[in-house]
Every structure is written in C-alpha cells, then in structure tokens.
Write a structure and sequence with these properties.
By secondary structure, this protein is mainly alpha-helical. It is built from nine helices and two strands, in the order E-E-H-H-H-H-H-H-H-H-H. The chain has helices at 21-29, 38-51, 56-69, 75-78, 83-90, 99-113, 119-125, 147-158, 166-175, and strands at residues 4-6, 12-14. It has a two-stranded antiparallel sheet with strand order 1-2. The two termini are 19 Å apart.
C-alpha cells in the first residue's frame, strides 16, 4: 500500500486519510499543527483516551457531541461532574460509552484543575522532541511509541492521569504537532 494518496483536489496526502472528506479536512487543517492551551490539550488527551482501541475517524465524527456533553472540555466544569453525569454520559449514544474512560476523563479534569494556568501545556510540550529534519518516507517509518511519548506517559501517570499510555501519548504528540509525521511528499510536509 502506498503511503501517499492523491485527493480529489490533486494534492498528495498521507494515505491514512483515505477518501473521507472529514478525515481530509482534519489532516489538512489540524493533524500535526502545533496546539497549545490547557483546555485544548485536555480535550486532545480525553479524546485520544476515548480512541484507544477504536478508529480515530469514529472519534472525529463524534467529537461535536463529545464537546457538547463534556462542557467544551473545560477542565473546571468537567472536574465537577458526579455520578449523575457519569450515568447521563453512559446513556448518550452520541459518544463512546465506556465507563472507565468517562470516569478517567473526569478524574483527569480534576488533576488539570489542580494545576496552575499553562502548566499542562508546559508539561506536555516539555516532552516534545527536537525536530529531526527528516520526514518519514512511508508508514513503516512512523513509530507507534517513542522514548518521549513513554516519558510523557510515565510522568502523567505518576501525577495520577489515566488512559495516557505511551501509544496514546504518541498519537497526541502527532495530532497536537509536537512531532510532524506527515509523510515525505505529502502537501503538508
């Protein structure tokens, strides 16, 4: 399978985009673009946690509903969610209904709320590796885990965060632009 795919606009993209218009928009506008801010990174952490074991397109399609039912991923608000909210979320077919992931998101929000302003952003970005200057030539050159994602995961878990394993954290690093894994030849590369 080729690592690049030419889209309907004649642009070469990372082939994981396939022919889905929403995936194409996400690839072109978000994936690999540096993302900052405690709220934005908390949302990314939560959604990457919900994605574990599923396809990212599933999360992407459900993201508007996730944002709605999780109060825009404002940590201060989500941190106040209680058992009634967990039950409400478990009954919402518009999101991934996984009790452990819902409870972890609330607990993670409580941890973010206890941090100083900008601390989550600073912490996560402190694990971003220096730009290598070398692009992956194919999917086989893109790792699932790196020493940096493992270290970030370890530090977050030490602080009590859940659903932040090394693979999940590497996916976050890619999507939040901490690493740039656009394949050589991709128009975004």
């Amino acid at each position: 399978m080729s690592s690049l795919l030419t889209g309907p606009d004649a642009r070469d993209r990372c082939a994981w985009v396939g022919d889905d218009a929403e995936y194409r928009r996400y690839h072109d506008e978000e994936w690999g673009t540096p993302l900052h801010g405690d709220r934005a990174l908390f949302e990314k952490m939560a959604l990457e946690g919900f994605q574990a074991g599923l396809s990212w397109i599933t999360i992407l399609r459900k993201r508007p509903r996730f944002r709605e039912v999780f109060a825009g991923f404002e940590p201060e608000i989500v941190a106040e969610f209680g058992e009634d909210d967990v039950e409400r979320l478990m009954g919402d077919a518009g999101i991934i209904r996984n009790r452990a992931k819902i409870v972890a998101t609330i607990g993670n929000a409580q941890l973010v709320r206890s941090m100083g302003t900008g601390e989550l952003d600073e912490l996560m970005w402190s694990f971003a590796p220096p730009a290598s200057g070398t692009r992956p030539a194919s999917f086989s050159d893109v790792p699932a885990v790196t020493p940096e994602s493992t270290a970030l995961s370890k530090e977050l878990r030490r602080r009590g965060f859940r659903f932040v394993g090394p693979t999940t954290m590497y996916a976050l690093m890619q999507s939040a632009g901490m690493v740039d894994d656009h394949i050589a030849g991709c128009w975004r590369a």
